[in-house]
Amino acid sequence: MDDGLKEGHSADTAMVNGDGAHGPTEEAESRQDGNSEADGGEDSNEQEVIVIQDTGFTVKIQAPGTEPFDLQVSPQEMVQEIHQVLMDREDTCHRTCFSLQLDGNVLDNFAELKSIEGLQEGSLLKVVEEPYTVREARIHVRHIRDLLKSLDPSDAYNGVDCNSLSFLSIFTDGDLGDSGKRKKKGNELEQIDCTPPEHILPGSKERPLVPLQPQNKDWKPMQCLKVLTMSGWNPPPGNRKMHGDLMYLYIVTVEERHVSLTASTRGFYLNQSTTYTFNPKPANPSFLSHSLVELLSQISPAFKKNFTALQKKRVQRHPFERIATPFQVYSWTAPQVDHAMDCVRAEDAYTSRLGYEEHIPGQTRDWNEELQTTRELPRKNLPERLLRERAIFKVHSDFAAAATRGAMAVIDGNVMAINPGEETRMQMFIWNNIFFSLGFDVRDHYRELGGDAAAHAAPTNDLNGVRAYGAVDVEGLYTLGTVVVDYRGYRVTAQSIIPGILEREQEQSVIYGSIDFGKTVVSHSKYLELLEKTSRPLKVQRHNVLNEKDDKVELCSSVECKGIIGNDGRHYILDLLRTFPPDLNFLPVDGEELPPESQRQGFPRQHRHRLACLRQELIEAFVEHRYLLFMKMAALQLMQQKANKDTKTDTPAITETSDTPSESNADTTQTQTAPSDPPSVTEVSVDSTNQTDSNTSADSEAVKEGEENSAKPATNGPLDLTTTQNGECKNPLEGKELEESIPGLAQAKELAETLVGEDGSCIDPKSREVVLNACKAVGSISNTSFDIRFNPDIFSPGVRFPDDSADDVQKQKQLLKDAAAFLVSCQVPSLVKDCLDHSALPMDGATLTEALRQRGINIRYLGSVLEFVDKTPAKAQLEHFYVSNRNHHFLNCFLSSFPDAVAHLPPDELVSRRKNRKRRNRVPGGGDNTAWASLTPNELWKNIASEAQSYYHFTIQCDSADQVVEKYGLQKITLLREISVKTGIQILIKEYNFDSRHKPAFTEEDILNIFPVVKHVNPKASDAFHFFQSGQAKVQQGFLKEGCELINEALNLFNNVYGAMHVEICACLRLLARLNYIMGDHPEALSNQQKAVLMSERVLGIEHPNTIQEYMHLALYCFANGQLSTALKLLYRARYLMLMVTGEDHPEMALLDSNIGLVLHGVMEYDLSLRFLENALTINTKYHGPRSLKVALSHHLVARVYESKAEFRSALQHEKEGYTIYKNQMGEGHEKTKESSEYLKYLTQQAVALQRTMNEIYKNGSNASIMPLKFTAPSMASVLEQLNIINGIIFIPLSQKDLENLKAEVQRRQQLQELGKIEETTEDSRLELEDKIPID
């Protein structure tokens, strides 16, 4: 079973488990592909690949009425999983109630196969029908219902049971692999119809909505039954129970036959009841069958025919189209679906089916116990960690699903409050062992912090805290399961319940922290010990505060963080909303001045609440930045010392550096009472590479004096351990020049590393002084080593500090100010710079948010980012970002769950930008707030503008939505998408007329549903991720084979932890496909990329920017496999989606259009090809500047098409442009320049030849001897070569020697590139591989 999970059997297993199989699989967590034997000395050597081999074997399975068949199994599997496979197979899918027997012995469902005696290669397992129980009968009916619905997308539209949409198969006509073999390559050219629909052509203004969800012919459901439902005669009366009746069903067949069935212990049979008379006796004939499907096949020919056809289709679908996703994905558009009768759905709605409680002993799940027990699982070696991470992930996704259900039930009014006497906004709820509270300021708890606005922001801050502590994962410290749900304009927080907390008063249970924001504070030694372990990774400083009696209390977290010991003896921490320090840019404090960088941009600004915190990413980037500074200063001083030694004078090291810094105004040094072992420098430096310092940052002033003689820190010092992952703080305007490294600085760094002994004791007094000065300068809390931490209580109202720590507090305040300045002066410019050099290309609100957050910029800084964009000289090149994203974000964020306008405006408002009919269908909270129903578009627009002003400090200088659309070139359809996605609205998929003056764009019938917007913790698969990263690193060094193995291993581990579907698996598959392609294995590339596309559609959404990228890659691999028409369909789909998401004006569009143009050129559609290529040329020129190499390449591509059309004059004109760019950028001698000039000569010859021929014709009339001209259709190979170039791929012939040469070449190129010689022409820096292998 080659390597764990290659499609076949395990995929099925994963699949069935996902299909909401109701067997105990969910609980039977312990399946694991890891070999428990593989313990041993693994942890000592993390990075060695431990390939966990499963030696699979084959067993025969004999089911009643079918031929025996072979099944590949692995020794780690459980018997349960064979059950799942049988319930999914086409010929045995209708059986649910059976046992497997080996030589007459029943196998235990939860036994691992390797533990079963006598089970070996070739054993025969018999499927034996077992008697039904009520539970088994219900599971059977539910399973049959699922089979009947298996092709019906309504669950995906309704966002239930983790179903989601996928449309790839429509564009590929089924599975890619096979169709490639079936079609003959020769005659492909003739039969392709390449004309794209009108709305996809460049320049088209139409943006239709309907093609977003193309009609899938498989979904026209083949009707097997009209009605299958529970009968009104349930449950059976006592005397019938004695006869074995379990329940009654009522069925209407397609032939309009109405029948009543009895489910009994022996199976299903027809009885004689009708709708109004009860007669449970068997009818004649009764057709007793063990399976409902067998019974129905006998009484309804249509059922038999259609059911068989349906199962055939079901089994043909790609497993990824039907496996459940780990978290629910909602679709913002849906067609009008007929509402059909469905007994299971009805039953689920009325019984509070708390996540399949049928098969969990003890009814409801104790979420807290499950969440905490999984954390306590052992984690000493790889198999244990896999098991633990898998259990954690599973419980988390179940908990998130249950919490979402509960939150919706609470808002819909289906749950009784635990304090029903209080007014609605104060109510709290418990449902299914989860505690729910609403995001309102109850009992003026947040009065000083901003009331309801603070109460709305607190849950997300708390969630970030839970996420951070969860990631540190300290043994013995527990957090609550937390999910934040925004639904119908309310914010609901769902938390697991600490055992015993409901029985006692809060005052008694809190033994650490404060319940009144610092008026009374208590501490506890055990909590200090546990929190101390999180202090370094989370950069939280231990500090003292005063309590109400003016006694000192020591804390290692913010005061609000409460410690409670549950009845289970576990130490819980909750209310982690201030885990990270406050953001002073949004927290004006009397008498405190911010650094000039912040003041210049108008900070501090008043914010609507006082809980604005810095993001963890920012803290990390800031500390990293300071670390670099620290190394630089220490190195400079050492060099001075060295210089002094050489001149034999014994003057002390020059230490001005430590006084100049604008930063630590405090000259005091602080000794840390218990220095926790300071990191040996290398340890901290792991991620501080390739960071160059920004001249604009506060810190650079600190080293002005040293700056003259050292230009910049050499990034090739001993720190190059990994490339940074966050916040590169480069001066936005410095080009790609790498600072010349100062000779000697590298040695100085090594010296600096030797300074710090392992225990923090320095070697000699001189060096100690050096370190001391550097520590002071960068604000380190220790004097002997670099260590920056923040005190999260600084500037908290109500918190008082003891007098003796005044100096520390002063230092901490300075540190916070510097961090705030760093955000504005470093991170925002670096984001804009990344957008300018196209290493970040946000396409929509979600990707933009991600780009901001990666750099630690909060969404509330949008206004500042926009201002910065406004002032950037290359503003036109940022238009896409400005426009298509930013404003979206605005308008939408705007009333969406982000900034919180929701508390007083129902989310639907936003759409009233087109007429205000849209909002009538929402009934928020009480009856008193119907004011919104009479809101006019004008008033709404005023609200929007004032909201943008107050939250983002951004002035919208327009009087209506239409003006904004005009001014920023937005598309209403894109706005509609952003708004719907952010607020969870689902609209009917049809064409909307936004510009009609006479009738509103939306009617009440167009709003189909409202979905929750859910935020939760995403548990990570740590080992898999390490493998993935080392695989990426190997690939970037040119070791493709090894990289490929590592990534395959990562894929196995990801599958092991996450199951078959997950965003990270998607990235893994994409990279694998790319490697397969580079190494020449096209079919494998195709298969992996197909999975990546399906998964991206299912997990991220059908029009997510990632999905668009995946479609483009798949098209390339299809083309390479000779499937031209499929490649075109995929590219057209990608272009449609991109138009929908951002419009035509986006740098990525150029890449897409070049791809389309090339493929069209390949199939000889020259005119169409030119439309796309010329559009790409225009966009490239706009975003990369007319002199860029991308533009040169675009010119060349256009020239080739003109050559094919024999329009040599135009061809020459374009190629000349390209040649000029190459000559200026690369010089005469460069191969590109030479190639281009060769091509120019060739074109000139062709043009001359053509002219001669024409003259000949004019001169001699019809009897001219015409030279045959070469009009060449481009060869597929040449088209493919160009496709690879524009997609940033170079090919590698895989002989060992070539590999060596390649490695040398790659290194040489990287050095060249660092010297700024090469402008990267790699297209897409979001793909991991190519940004490291530039092609020229």
Q: What amount of the residues lies in strands?
A: 5-15%
What fraction, in percent, of the residue positions are helical? 40-55%
Strand order, main sheet: write it out.
Answer: 2-1-5-3-4
Compute the average pLDDT: 77
Gyration radius from CA atoms, angstroms: 34 Å
Number of strands: 23
Number of helices: 44
Estimate the global geometry from the Cα principal axes. Answer: globular
Distance between the termini: 42 Å
Largest sheet: 5 strands, mixed
Could you list the spans in which at least 5 consecutive residues all have pLDDT below 50? 1-53, 178-190, 352-362, 649-745, 756-762, 880-929, 1316-1336
- Class from secondary-structure proportions: alpha+beta
Structure write-up:
The protein is of the alpha+beta class. Helices cover 44% and strands 8% of the residues. The chain has 44 helices and 23 strands. The strands form six sheets. It has a five-stranded mixed β-sheet, with helices on one face. Strands 11-12-15-14-23 form a five-stranded antiparallel β-sheet, sandwiched between helices. Strands 6-7-8-9 form a four-stranded antiparallel β-sheet. α18 crosses α23 (745-755) and α33 (1040-1058) runs antiparallel to α34. The two termini are 42 Å apart. Residues 1-53, 178-190, 352-362, 649-745, 756-762, 880-929 and 1316-1336 have low confidence and may be disordered.
